[in-house]
Amino acid sequence: MSKLGNLGARLHRGEVGYDFVKNRKIWYGLSILITITAIVGLAVRGLNMGIEFQGGAVFNTPKNTAASVTQAESYAEEASGHDAIVQKLGDGSLRIQVAGIDTGAANKIKNTLADDLKIDPEQINAELVGPSWGEQIANKAWQGLGIFLVLVVIYLAIAFEWRMAVAAFVALIHDITITVGIYALVGFEVTPGTVIGLLTILGYSLYDTVVVFDSLKEQTKDLTKQTRWTYSDVANRSINSTLVRSINTTVVALLPVAGLLFIGGGVLGAGMLNDISLSLFVGLAAGAYSSIFIATPLVADLKEREPQMKALKKRVLAKRAQAAAKGETEVHDDESYAGEPEDDAAPAVVGPRNQPASRGRGRGRPSGKRR
Hints:
Layout: H1 3-13, H2 24-45, E1 48-49, H3 51-54, E2 56-60, H4 69-80, E3 84-88, E4 94-99, H5 103-117, E5 125-129, H6 131-159, H7 162-186, E6 189-190, H8 192-219, H9 231-241, H10 243-267, H11 274-303, H12 307-325
Parallel strand pairs: 1-6
Antiparallel strand pairs: 2-4, 2-5, 3-4
């Protein structure tokens, strides 16, 4: 068994682990800091909306155009009076995007570009996007995102409970805000591919969160009937028991996306890959973080506000204090709800376990088995 697999097995059994829930205030503070930075970046720099959202024109030159990207960008900005985005395609042609211009100005810009690039105007293919159509695209994108969030909250409230639905919703907003803020800070163009990427990463984020929630729901059945573990203890065990699986799935998903972003978009210059690959890369990383450090600790916070969970926590802490005063290293409990920590006064992780076999079972028999 590999070291990582062995670690995952030990995490699942509760033999080792990290107390994520106990240090939740650190994660909350870090997330708030990152979110504020993203919001400030969005407010100061704004989003670089593509022509699909604000209207404009796209000019495609013929193959093997002699002008460089820098020259074509300069020509387009002089001809239009607007910022231009130029991409060199694989066949040597240029794709020139100019946002915020109308149909009448597009023909004039086309002729000017033809003169500057020393090519026939008929060889330049112009595609126009009206601002009203771009506004409709933007509205549909926001509507789709809103419907997605509503359906997710309803499903989680039915499948689990409303506290988990609220925690998942907060985690999703956290992921969206960070991803959009990174887009503003980096200055990448926002296209329909960006929207597709955002919706895709929300699904990945929910996957990791639901896996932890399902484990937590299973382990907290009849929790109030014992006096060994608080809700936070079991929530912490749920995170640890699924930690390696979450890391593995996230890394496997990030590797091809990183290839698109850094190799395809950066090294090879395929700029059209940047819009979707950046949203996927940032969103996948933020989704994995939020499912571990935000969603489950937040559920524990909300759950332990309930009177019955408050009473349970009080009983558990009192029992641990009593055991510590007597110098005991373990609280003996016939109910034996979860795994036994090394130090019961401050358990690291908890979780269900099988009852150990009786030490006297099979005594006196050569095989040590029941007959």
